[in-house]
Amino acid sequence: MNALYFEKFGDREVLQYGKIQRPKIKQDEILVKTEYIGLNFADIYRRRGEYYIEKHIPYINGYEAAGVVEAVGAKVKNQQIGETVLFVDVPFANAEYVAVPSDRAIRLPATIDSKLAASVGLQGLTADFLAHDLGQNIRDEKVFITGISGGVGQLLSQILIADGLAVYGSASSAEKKSLALAHGVREVFPSRETDWVESVEGQFATVYDGVGSTLPQSLDLLKHRGKVVFFGMAGGDPIKVDPVTLMSESKSLLTGDLWDYLTSYQERKLRSERLFNYFEQGKIKISEPTVFSLADGKAAHEFLEIGKSIGKVLLKP
Q1: With 70 as the cut, is the pLDDT of residue 308 above it?
Q2: Strand 29-39 to strand 313-316: parallel, antiparallel, or no bridges (unpaired)?
Q3: How far apart are CA 43 and CA 59, in angstroms?
Q4: Are residues 176 and 204 in the same domain?
Q5: For the segment 275-301, what is each residue's pLDDT rounded down to a tens digit?
Q6: Burial class (CB in 10 A: 0-12, 13-18, 19+), 237
Q7: What is the domain range of residue 116?
């Protein structure tokens, strides 16, 4: 089979495309022929040697893809040959075929095709987890999302709006601001400026912060008894937080890891059905993904790294 791989860590020039051996499935695995593969910033960091990557000779990046089941192991009961499935945490996804543990495969309904699934899989399940496990907001509450037009931010904002919340946020460009407003966000502030912060301090029940370096600002935006849901460091490491200071205004800082919640086949089924339901009801719309051939992996990495993308970047075998 063909795959995108590398033999040493480095910049995108280390990527190679060519023939490697097709994986052999175990009794509890399925063989998936990938149709669309999700490219994420984590894949950039893995290629550089900054994130953990599963051992393999050569290294094969990627953990997220959607495709068709081509074979099933003897002990597999949840999938059948010919079904279309999504996976979001299975290594070696940058290839034409991937061996997927049966309990990590998410069956797609007829209303969700593989392109959409790969576009929203990991980021959509993350947004769902942030909103429903950590945020748990009450209808009509005011909430704020830093980096609101990022991959998770776009989906999270629309989930929260669909759930009846008043959503505000920050974005780095006029184009990203317009995108958020088109999705129903009430107001979007420039993320690279701070003169607006004082005008909205103390107004929000929840601030969803995936930027990291903006944590002090996020705490300022909270009203008393509010909470920051901290989920990433796209803009740099956060400062240390003094819990005594939080206590004086009854503010909370919540964090979580999706993998502490996405722990079984049943969890994946229930959470993906909830996510897909928003799309089936027309409550979430996404930007058209940018699709590169898997053979053009270097160009795809460059496109993502230099910040050209607004929607998802996909690789297509």
Answers
A1: no
A2: antiparallel
A3: 12
A4: yes
A5: 999 999 999 999 899 999 999 999 999
A6: exposed
A7: 2-120+260-316
